[in-house]
Queue: 3 jobs
Job 1
Amino acid sequence: MPNLLSSDALIAPLFGDSLKGEPHVFDFSSANPATLSYDPANFQAFQSAVYGELERSGKTWGLGKYLEERSTILRNFPQILSEERIYHAGLDITSLPGTPLFAPLDAVVFATGKEEGIGNYGGFVILKHERVTLSGVEGYSFYGHLHSRHIVSEGKRVAAGERFAVIGDGGDSGGWFTHTHLQLITEEARRRERMFHGYVSKADLSDIEQLFPSPVMFFQH
């Protein structure tokens, strides 16, 4: 794994103090038969299924795993399946709509927007970090499924711990259950025009550190 952070960099909690206790870790893999009922085209049903599981766990927030194989959930997205991009390249953090997000490190807002359509990111923010080196150059962090009435704009500097977004739902989440998708992106991935690839193929896994390194160390709570 590359050395992602400068030696004196301190990561601020992405959710501030809003996440209490330990998370429920979801199994969104095709090995879980419950995923056969998940349908991003039916937001309310999808939301009820995921949040019902969270409630039964007794936890107040949840995590979806990095590099998890998710072919069943992706079954209605032929482009992704045709490219065999079935491995989740980010970390999903499940929390309620309107939950604020705070910059983990000092950053410049690289891009904001809304990716339309069921199964897409909905509202998103991309931060560029000068003190994160991914494959030897500056890196980016990506946040999807956000409220699309953005509170930051391209070019704005945000300090570690500064609020920069809130979680969306429904149309703002691309139909996915309420959460944010956190992903680290290298300059090489940007150069290959893969910044919006939240899933990767088996062939990508051998090169994953050069494209989308693990975001786990970037997520403090």
Job 2
Amino acid sequence: MRPTVTNLPIEFDEVTLAVRNVTILDRVTLAISAGTPTVIVGPNGSGKTTLLRSAMGLIRPTSGRVTWGSRADASSERRAIVFQRPVMLRRSAEANLRYALAVANVPAPERDARVRELLALVGLTSVADRPARKLSGGEQQRLALARALAKDPQILFLDEPTASLDPAATKSLEDLIGSIAARGIKVVMSTHDLGEARRVAGEIVLMHRGRIVEANDAASFFNNPKTPDAARFVAGELLV
């Protein structure tokens, strides 16, 4: 049984991150709670990926505080992240999953069933024996999702997961993200595609120049943005 300890909400309290005198996150205050997917949008270089990495616990802020379930020292065991260009191991799709399950300390007798379950979930059963690096871009992204799910996370971070995919692969991945969220896993993802944000998000966080411009439920964000920058962004104008 999983421990009842939760990593939610994730709370940023005046978080600033500066690297070589360049401010990447600027006094970010934000709460990410359980529920529908949270989608982070904004221009390139706005800080979306850095926010995800900080929420995952991969980067420590220069100042301010990030907490998970009100704890600053929460283990990352219940968090997983998929990067925009995931690296495939030089082995089959199935063997990539077996490795992920071993790393997640899933008992060996349980791995066969878990491999079958994960392959079925992401629609890769028919290519289980194919070398992972020979899969299409969309298939690799779905395999990367399955590997992340191997650790049975409470929170799944996705960094622009459809950025290099064609429309069919994008729809397949978005449908999968919806299925994952329906299982009660909190999805937090970044995208530069407003159409995708409309399709996936329950909550929108707009970033610009390392700051949170607006955070709101998706319907309110798109239909009645609270800030001029958000209104311009929704209208398709450039934020400079």
Job 3
Amino acid sequence: MDATARFAELVQGPEHEIPLDEAALLVAAHAYPDLDVAVELGLLDGLAAGCPDHTLAGWRRYVFVELGFSGDVGSYYDPANSYLNDVVRRRMGLPITLSVVGMELGRRIGLRLDGIGMPGHFLLRDDAEPPTFVDPFDSGRLLDRADCVERFHVVNGADAPFLESYLAAIGSRAILSRMLANLRSIFVHAADLRGLEWVLTLRLAIPGVSPLERRDLARVLSSAGRFDEAAAQLETLATTVPDQADAILEEATGFRARLN
């Protein structure tokens, strides 16, 4: 099974059964076609096996001091920061990919850590009471609720309203969707049509992602001169959004006309 098909199979299964580490590596496999996902999973196993203390404090010390994982402040928008294999090897990444590493190492040692999809800055939460938050981008710094609110306002502006739902745990599908959204932004800025094609294809495989992203995929295909594929994507989209079908099919017809 190829990486795209395997990714779709995983994300369309039960949410609680999605192996986040494998799915994130399958994203990376689209940038690295020769990537051996089983080998990469083994590297995570090996890192986890080296953690001598399975408490939150021991995990933090091991991941952020001994292993040296940290945020990449110098080249934040480097696509490598979104590829789990690169993050594991370079010990640098984005808040969300560092969080995935942290969650997956924690899971392997019996430590439950939830992903917190706060707008603009991804965090982890320890399954304790009161909740303790961890900022993987800031060398595993511990945060309380007030710290999280402060961090939110630093990123989003002092006047941005803070909602308690921002500190709720999110599932694997939402994490993967956000990772791909980061890559989509990077590839749009770089005008990378190949990258946009596979990123949008993977996002469309995730339940809950707007079907209208298929129009974005069609336009990427059109920009690459693949008008028949672009039209086919729009014709598929038209069946899922009947209220917009006429306009979508008109655009599809325009793509097919360019084949002549």
